């Protein structure tokens, strides 16, 4: 009897996960059987390390609230919509229909277009908040993992945003793509979907390898990431998504020496490093067109190669922050940079 029940519940789990992975509806009975199987499978308790902190989960969180678009899409890509109470994100205007996990936006409640707060997560009865330092978490807004813990709410910190040696002003502890793969694999353990996580990571690695296979030999075009800012540009250091997107796409990231994730520099530094290409981060109220017009009209940049030769490429915000869209962004930029070389 015990063997038969184990086989039945194992089959229920596999069926539920398969259906969830392909976007099909999963019945409440299937979910219950899958949950029962997870409890009896010996998977829990499971201990994981996140940004240097070890946490033990006795079961999979059931009411996760995420902050920001890329973080929500990590959950969607893993097929974890049924474990989410909602997501907080601005009114993202990018293409949601082009991704395999697009159904997540219909299945999961959009809780707020504004800043995540304790009130939002309490109202959602969250048992876990998935956000990042300066991606929701911060002392300035009094929203921290330590503060949530006092309310009985767990936290998972986006690895791209891990504080460097606990330093509140410097973020990043590993290369950006490694951070994405780490989060997928770690969350796979937390939610008992390790096979799904492995399939995603393997697919993303292949997508990157395929893009790199078409990169010609020779000198790499130098690339600057422009996020926003008129007086001082906000850009990417070595630990934010654009670094790996640029370098793995065949470019030479001009700000690779900055041991931080997102940070500001001076326009004098940009002029001095004279990038061949500028990548614009498209988001917010200032459009990509407006950003491009500013770059082309800003007198100090007139002699910069990218501006002079009109080599300005646009990627969406969710392409550039840690998200499951990073590999596709590498492929898109690789194709553009190949064209730059051939001109």
Map the helices and strands:
Elements: H1 2-21, H2 28-40, E1 46-50, E2 53-57, E3 64-67, H3 69-77, E4 84-88, H4 104-107, E5 110-112, H5 118-123, E6 128-133, E7 136-137, H6 145-150, E8 154-157, E9 163-164, E10 167-171, H7 176-190, H8 194-213, E11 222-226, E12 234-236, H9 241-248, E13 252-253, E14 262-264, H10 267-273, E15 277-282, H11 288-297, H12 305-308, E16 312-316, H13 317-320, H14 326-342
Helix pairs in contact: 1-2, 7-8, 8-14, 9-14
Family: Belongs to the bacterial solute-binding protein 8 family.
Signal peptide: 1-20
Domain Fe/B12 periplasmic-binding: 63-343
Folded structure, characterized:
InterPro entries: ABC_Transporter_SBP, ABC_transptr_periplasmic_BD. Residues 1-20 form the signal peptide. Pfam families: Peripla_BP_2 (PF01497). This is Iron complex transport system substrate-binding protein. It contains 14 helices and 16 strands. With 343 residues, the protein is an alpha/beta fold. The protein has three domains: 1-42; 44-206, 3-Layer(aba) Sandwich (Rossmann fold); 216-342, Rossmann fold (3-Layer(aba) Sandwich), CATH 3.40.50.1980. Strand 9 and strand 10 (167-171) form a beta hairpin. Helix 9 packs across helix 14. The longest helix is centred in the N-terminal third of the chain and has 20 residues, at 2-21. The N and C termini lie far apart (71 Å).
The gross shape turns out to be globular
What structural class do helix, strand and pairing data support? alpha/beta
What is the share of helical residues?
A: 40-55%
- The CATH architecture designation of the largest domain is 3-Layer(aba) Sandwich
**Text of the CATH class of the largest domain:** Alpha Beta
- Rounded Rg: 21 Å
- Strand coverage percent: 15-25%
The arrangement of helices and strands along the chain is HHEEEHEHEHEEHEEEHHEEHEEHEHHEHH
Total count of domains: 3
- DSSP strand count: 16
Largest sheet: 6 strands, parallel
Uncertain spans? 1-27
CATH superfamily of the largest domain: Nitrogenase molybdenum iron protein domain
Stated plainly, the CATH topology of the largest domain is called Rossmann fold
Mean pLDDT score, rounded?
Answer: 88
């Amino acid at each position: 009897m015990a063997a038969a029940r184990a086989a039945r519940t194992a089959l229920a789990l596999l069926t539920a996960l398969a259906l969830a992975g392909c976007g099909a509806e999963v019945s409440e009975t299937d979910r219950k059987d899958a949950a029962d199987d997870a409890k009896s499978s010996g998977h829990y308790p499971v201990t994981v390390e996140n940004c240097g902190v070890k946490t033990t989960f006795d079961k999979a969180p059931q009411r996760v609230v995420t902050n920001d678009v890329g973080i929500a899409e990590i959950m969607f890509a893993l097929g974890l919509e049924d474990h989410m109470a909602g997501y907080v994100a601005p009114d993202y205007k990018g293409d949601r229909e082009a991704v395999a996990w697009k159904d997540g936006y219909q299945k999961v409640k959009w809780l707020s277009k504004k800043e995540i707060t304790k009130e939002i997560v309490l109202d959602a009865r969250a048992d876990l908040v998935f956000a990042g330092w300066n991606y929701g978490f911060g002392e300035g807004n009094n929203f921290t993992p330590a503060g949530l813990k006092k309310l009985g709410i767990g936290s998972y910190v986006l690895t791209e945003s891990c504080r460097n040696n606990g330093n509140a002003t410097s973020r990043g502890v590993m290369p950006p793509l490694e951070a994405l793969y780490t989060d997928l694999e770690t969350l796979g353990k937390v939610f008992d979907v390790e096979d799904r996580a492995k399939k995603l990571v393997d697919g993303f690695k292949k997508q990157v390898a395929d893009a790199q296979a078409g990169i010609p030999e020779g000198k790499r075009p130098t690339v600057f990431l422009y996020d926003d800012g008129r007086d001082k540009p906000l850009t990417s250091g070595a630990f934010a998504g654009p670094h790996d997107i640029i370098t793995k796409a065949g470019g030479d990231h001009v700000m690779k020496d900055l041991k931080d994730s997102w940070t500001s520099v001076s326009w004098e530094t940009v002029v001095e490093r004279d990038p061949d290409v500028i990548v614009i981060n498209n988001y917010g109220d200032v459009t990509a067109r407006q950003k491009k017009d500013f770059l082309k009209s800003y007198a100090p940049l007139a002699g910069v190669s990218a501006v002079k030769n009109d080599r300005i490429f646009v990627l969406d915000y969710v392409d550039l922050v840690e998200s499951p869209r990073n590999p596709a962004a590498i492929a898109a930029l690789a194709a553009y940079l190949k064209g730059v070389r051939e001109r």
